Amino acid sequence: MAETMFVAGHSRLPAGMAAKNVYETLTITVELERKYGVILEASCTLATEHGRDFIGRLLRGHSILHGVDDLVEEVKQNYYGKATNAITAALADLHYQFQQIKLK
């Protein structure tokens, strides 16, 4: 079994966002260390490369093993764009997907 896994979380984008013209949902994808749930790499479907890079750097290094509350707080304190709620909802879905995989 591989030591890493790929997991995606999704949420709806708010109206009026540039990314909404391309995507209906925001997707956050992560490569996780399997045992401890540490995010090794992360990406998302924000419209700008700068936004995608920023979220990737913000998430990298955090563990989602015991939830995403710390990540949600990190996003709320450092990201000031229209997608804040969509990002936090996608993180919650990401954690849910991770828990479902771990239960198997």
TrEMBL record:
InterPro entries: DUF3870
Domain DUF3870: 6-99
Protein name stated in the entry: DUF3870 domain-containing protein
Organism field: Mesobacillus maritimus
